[in-house]
């Protein structure tokens, strides 16, 4: 059997240059990325509002943000966290859909862990210690840990892919990811001291302050990732044959 020989190009035919991914029409992912970032930032504004509404009830240095869910403004806390979770899910969905990161990658898994962890924080409220321990409170605590650990992993893993041509933003993403892990290391250190016979870990450090610093750092890292999402374009189509 004779080998198949590709047909020659018709006279005057030429290969069309592939469309540039950067010059691609209006940026297919700009709208969802903008919506995702807006949701995250709106959620953060609502969290800040909780501090004003409960300035005399919750000590921001010692008490965690979840304390706000034990009072009459639980709905506002839930709305704030849901906005951050939804916006985050949209942003990481953009990264996966645009093939910036692979679906089965540390960045994708980290983004999913952060998003699902935040959703679990809303579904399972913090333990009200005036009543006693609860299963929901235990799930809430572990979901918080998963979320706060997962996001730094995600942004560190995605930094290069999200900012391939912006070394400054890539470096900033990594610095914020490492800074988030540094905040977490303070909590780990307090736990180790407790296991060695020291004070309970939640009393050995200003837990509320550490958590707020951690959250602010992680949201900043997420915002820098979102900046990369805003610049994504529709992947270039394959070259096609055109005739003059």
TrEMBL record:
Superkingdom: Bacteria
Keywords (alphabetical) are: Membrane, Transmembrane, Transmembrane helix
Ranges that cross the membrane: 35-55, 75-96, 108-127, 139-159, 171-194, 214-232
Transmembrane helix is among the record's keywords = yes
Taken from the record, one Pfam family name reads: DUF998
Give start-end ranges for the coiled-coil region(s). Answer: none
Keyword check for Transmembrane, yes or no.
Answer: yes
- Matching InterPro entries: DUF998 (IPR009339)
User: What's the protein here called?
Assistant: Uncharacterized protein DUF998
Where does this protein come from, organism-wise? Prauserella rugosa
């Amino acid at each position: 059997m004779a080998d198949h020989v590709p047909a020659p190009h018709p006279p005057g035919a030429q290969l069309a240059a592939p469309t540039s991914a950067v010059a691609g029409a209006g940026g297919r992912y700009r709208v969802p990325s903008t919506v995702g970032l807006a949701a995250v930032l709106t959620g953060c504004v609502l969290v800040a509002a909780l501090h004003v509404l409960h300035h005399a009830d919750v000590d921001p240095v010692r008490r965690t943000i979840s304390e706000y869910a034990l009072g009459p403004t639980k709905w506002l806390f839930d709305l704030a966290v849901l906005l951050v979770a939804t916006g985050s899910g949209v942003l990481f969905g953009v990264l996966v859909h645009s093939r910036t990161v692979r679906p089965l990658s540390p960045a994708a898994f980290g983004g999913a862990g952060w998003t699902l962890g935040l959703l679990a924080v809303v579904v399972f409220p913090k333990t009200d210690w005036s009543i006693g321990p609860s299963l929901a409170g235990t799930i809430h605590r572990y979901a918080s840990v998963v979320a706060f650990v997962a996001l730094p992993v995600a942004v560190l893993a995605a930094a290069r892919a999200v900012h391939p041509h912006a070394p400054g933003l890539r470096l900033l993403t990594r610095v914020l990811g490492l800074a988030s892990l540094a905040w977490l290391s303070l909590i780990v250190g307090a736990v180790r001291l407790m296991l060695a016979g020291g004070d309970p870990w939640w009393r050995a450090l200003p837990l509320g302050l550490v958590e707020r610093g951690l959250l602010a750092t992680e949201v900043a890292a997420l915002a820098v990732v979102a900046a990369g999402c805003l610049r994504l374009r529709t992947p270039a189509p394959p070259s096609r044959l055109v005739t003059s």
